[in-house]
From TrEMBL:
Residues 6-135 form the PiggyBac transposable element-derived protein domain. InterPro entries: PGBD. It comes from the Eukaryota. This is PiggyBac transposable element-derived protein domain-containing protein.
C-alpha cells in the first residue's frame, strides 16, 4: 500500500465505483433529456463522469469532512478569498455541484419496486458490497485506532430512524465489524 487511494481501494472496489459512475450518469442523462425536451433552443451539454472523477469526488468529500467543512457551502469551499485552494485545483465548483446533485447508488427506475421489500433499496446493494469488503480486509492488518460511535437520527415524527454502525473488538489482534440497520416505520 503506497498511496491514500490504495488504502481506500482496500474497502471500495472498482465494481462499487462503477455502480456510482453508471447510476450517476443515468441520473444526469435523464435530467438532461428532460431539460432538452423542455428547452430545445437551449440544449444542456453534459459530460459523463468516469471512475477516476468519482475517486476525486470521494476524496474531496472526505477532505471536506476532515477539515470539518460540513457547515460550509460549495461557494465558501471554492471561494478565492476564504476557500481552500485544493478544492479549486482539483475540480470546478460547478462540476462538484453537478456530481453532488446526480450522485446515485442504484437505478431509480426500479427503486419503488425494491423499496416494497427493502426500505434501504437506494443503498442496499452498495452497502452489502462495502460490508463484504470489511469482512475480507479487517483480518489482514487493517487496524482501527479509535472506536466508532453509533449514530441515530430522530425524525420530526418522533420515530427513530437511521443507521447504526460500528466496530466490535472480538479478539486482541482482530476487530470484527458489525452493522445493523434500524429503520422504524
Amino acid at each position: 500500500m503506497r498511496t491514500v487511494k490504495d488504502a481506500f481501494q482496500l474497502l471500495f472496489t472498482e465494481e462499487m465505483i462503477l455502480i456510482i459512475v453508471t447510476e450517476t450518469n443515468r441520473s444526469a442523462r435523464k435530467a438532461a433529456e428532460a431539460w432538452n425536451e423542455q428547452n430545445p433552443d437551449k440544449k444542456w451539454q453534459r459530460k459523463d463522469t468516469d471512475s477516476e472523477e468519482i475517486w476525486v469526488f470521494i476524496g474531496l468529500l472526505i477532505l471536506a469532512g476532515v477539515q470539518r467543512s460540513q457547515k460550509e457551502n460549495l461557494h465558501e469551499l471554492w471561494s478565492m478569498n476564504s476557500g481552500r485552494s485544493i478544492f479549486r485545483a482539483t475540480m470546478s465548483k460547478n462540476r462538484m455541484d453537478s456530481l453532488l446533485k446526480f450522485c446515485r447508488f442504484d437505478d431509480a427506475a426500479t427503486r419503488d419496486t425494491r423499496m416494497e421489500v427493502d426500505k434501504l433499496a437506494p443503498i442496499s446493494e452498495f452497502w452489502a458490497m462495502f460490508l463484504a469488503r470489511l469482512q475480507i480486509r479487517a483480518p489482514y492488518g487493517l487496524k482501527f485506532l479509535s472506536p466508532v460511535q453509533s449514530e441515530s437520527m430522530k425524525s420530526k415524527k418522533s420515530e427513530w430512524t437511521g443507521l447504526d454502525y460500528g466496530l466490535s473488538p472480538v479478539h486482541t489482534e482482530l476487530c470484527y465489524r458489525y452493522a445493523t440497520f434500524q429503520v422504524v416505520q
